[in-house]
Specification:
Blueprint (H helix, E strand, L loop, with lengths): L3 H23 L4 E4 L4 E2 L7 E4 L2 E4 L7 E9 L3 H4 L7 E9 L4 E11 L5 E8 L6 E11 L9 E11 L7 E9 L8
Antiparallel strand pairs: 1-11, 2-5, 3-4, 4-11, 5-10, 6-9, 6-11, 7-8, 7-10
């Protein structure tokens, strides 16, 4: 026999999954990748040094050398449901210790029908102060709709070491919506 209290308890318990699902949907997560998960060009494998999720040009490489990596961007809800008013942000945790190091990230699309690759945004560590420690910086990207049914999206990363004193490194990449993000510059 159900009492008024137990009826209310059952009603609350039945509503809980709906509330949790709504919360989960409201908290869509951005696409992220550890630096060490990038796929290196075969000819660049001798340049790679990976440690604790980070990737860098190996210390044994005197330079000049450029390590090229690619990161596939998967179709997450946050990216699939973009509209023409939503700014996104490409964020990197990187190390660029000065004139002999550089980290570049290029957001690209590859059209499945035409085979055309287009660059949608460029992040360049040289646009930020040099630092021998890791720093996090980002780039706001103007509103655009990503069409995962027609395109493949990826990050093309270039870590350039101009001489033995350069220590370019990439710790992580994040791409997604960011409230309050406005185009810089």
């Amino acid at each position: 026999m159900l009492t008024v209290f137990s009826s209310k308890l059952w009603a609350a318990a039945a509503a809980l999954p709906v509330l949790l699902l709504g919360t989960a949907m409201a908290q869509a997560a951005p696409w992220t990748a550890a630096g060490s998960t990038g796929v290196a060009d075969e000819e660049d494998l001798q340049l790679v040094s990976a440690n604790e999720g980070r990737i860098e040009v190996a210390g044994s490489v005197a330079g000049p050398a450029t390590l090229n990596l690619r990161y596939n961007i998967v179709a997450l809800d946050e990216l699939v449901n973009l509209d023409n008013t939503s700014y996104t942000r490409l964020t990197a945790r990187f190390r660029d210790n000065g004139n002999n190091a550089r980290v570049e990230l290029r957001l690209k699309s590859y059209n499945l029908a035409t085979g055309v690759t287009s660059t949608l945004a460029n992040f360049d560590s040289n646009a930020h102060p040099a630092n021998s420690n890791y720093q996090q910086q980002g780039l706001c990207i103007p509103p655009a709709t990503l069409d995962f049914s027609q395109n493949v999206y990826f990050i093309d990363a270039l870590l350039t070491k101009s001489s033995s004193s350069g220590t370019p490194s990439l710790g992580a990449i994040k791409f997604g919506l960011e409230s309050g993000c406005v185009q810089e510059g």
